[in-house]
């Protein structure tokens, strides 16, 4: 389980608030994971635990899945433009 210390923090990296950067973020994360798996060759148990955690996060549409943006998940309140309030 030593190799999980390099995989689990990847799940904690937040997606950017700007929707234009979501594609770049997902490509970076995908290439990071691919290069990590090819270079470090984690054990089967670690890879399965990581893939199960990634699947559960993406399946539940929790909002931190870097593979795609869920349709029912909205942007956080901090991402909305509040300068137009009151006009």
From TrEMBL:
Pfam families the record matches? BC10
GO terms for CC? membrane
Would the keyword Cell wall biogenesis/degradation turn up in this protein's UniProt record?
A: no
Record's signal peptide: none
Q: Check the record and name the InterPro entries matching this protein.
A: BCALP
Q: Per the annotation, which location comes first and is thus the protein's main one?
A: membrane
The record's subcellular location field reads: Membrane
Domain of life from the UniProt record: Eukaryota
Database matches in PANTHER family: BLADDER CANCER 10 KD PROTEIN HOMOLOG (PTHR13259), BLADDER CANCER-ASSOCIATED PROTEIN (PTHR13259:SF1)
- Which family does the similarity line name? Belongs to the BLCAP family.
Purpose of the protein: Acts as a tumor suppressor; induces growth arrest at G(1)/S checkpoint and apoptosis via RB1-dependent and p53/TP53- and NF-kappa-B-independent mechanisms. Modulates expression of genes involved in the regulation of proliferation, cell cycle and apoptosis.
Full protein name: Bladder cancer-associated protein
Originating organism = Gouania willdenowi (Blunt-snouted clingfish)
Gene name in the database record:
blcap
């Amino acid at each position: 389980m030593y190799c999980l210390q390099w995989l689990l923090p990847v799940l904690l990296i937040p997606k950017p608030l700007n929707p234009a950067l979501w594609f770049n973020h997902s490509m970076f994360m995908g290439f990071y994971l691919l290069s990590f798996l090819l270079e470090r060759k984690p054990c089967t148990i670690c890879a399965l635990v990581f893939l199960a955690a990634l699947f559960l996060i993406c399946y539940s549409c929790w909002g931190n899945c870097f593979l795609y943006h869920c349709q029912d998940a909205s942007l956080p309140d901090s991402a909305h433009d509040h300068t137009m309030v009151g006009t």
